[in-house]
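I hope you will forgive my troubling you with a question about protein structure. The full record is reproduced below for your convenience:

——
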Amino acid sequence: MSEAYEIRVCMDIGSQSHQVAIGLSTGKILEEFNISHTPQDIDLFFNKIENHKVNDQLPVVVAMESYNGHARPIDKYVLEKGYRLINVNNYKLAQFKKIFPGASKRDVIDTRKMFELFTLQDHLPLAKNALQPVIPIPEVNEKLKRITRRRRSLVNEKVRVVNRMQSDLQAISPGLLGITGSADNLWFLRFLTSRNEIQQLSRIQFKSLLKIKGLGNSYALEIKNWQENAIFSADAEWVGEMIIRDARRLLELIDAISALEKKIDLLATESEMAKRLKTIGGFGKICAAELAGEIGTTDRFDSEASLALYLGMAILNNSSGLYEGTKKSKHVNYSAKAAMMTATAIHIRSSSQSKKYYDKKRNEGKKHNQAVRSLGRHMVRVIWSMLKNERDFIMQNND
């Protein structure tokens, strides 16, 4: 084997501590140790690496599991040091350990298996696919990723709280819920939270109703009509407290989501990718920002097919012998997939050509989501070309 040309560091990431092995590209392991997430141990980690490279000034490559997970903030420090960072695909590593089993399932064994992957990466396709270089992405897209994920989390929470509150309202006073078409209307939430007990809502004076922000004369009249025949079930005394608490939480969520969307708007104007994606009909500011944050940079992907798998717009061939079939990829970014599905579904309305393709798939027996995903696969090709060639989307006149 040729002489060592780089220092290789393998890390098995845990929630509290990390197993580390430092070695050479020849496969020789120089040192093994365990570190915690304390500043002292992180400094120790980098000092040990520098001590091993001091003689030959060899370049350093760090491989770790759970990149962007428990690895934070070590992964960021690694990149700041100028080391190459490699993400070890957990699923591929598990497959590798099945083929080449070790003595036991221990963190030390895992780091040694990572070294074997390094050694075999030029000879075994599984090994090469398991080691994925981490490409630095624009800081603005990093920010968009964190903020859009936070927004989506709050939106999902809002849906859960609305559904719970509507169920409780239906149980104790269907007429109260019938006042509004949607329980998350701001004026309705302010009405619910204007009193500490839900039964008191049936006794609010008309002039007091008009003082509630957003509740105009027409809604006040509807509330007065309900008050004349207001009925509450026996459990309203204790369920009502939960409804009011949920209504207050919804007001908080709406404010928080609105604040995040303002930040997203501002950041999206600084992201070249978000601005470019937004030129596609149906790809609104939120979906474009989500996709820019999750994609980060096209340099992370070998081809548009790789990007399509990442976005959940492609499926894998699962044919064997006379059997022909497909299967879902295990390596989908579900945040990106949700944004892509939403944007593509809306895009259908803005493009007659896309609408024809969607209708064709539905006529072939595809369900709605399947037809949208099929169109999304074509949209990935468009997006790939746009981003690689730095061109905006141009709507063709296809009527």
Notes: Residues 272-389 form one domain. The two ends are 64 Å apart (CA to CA).
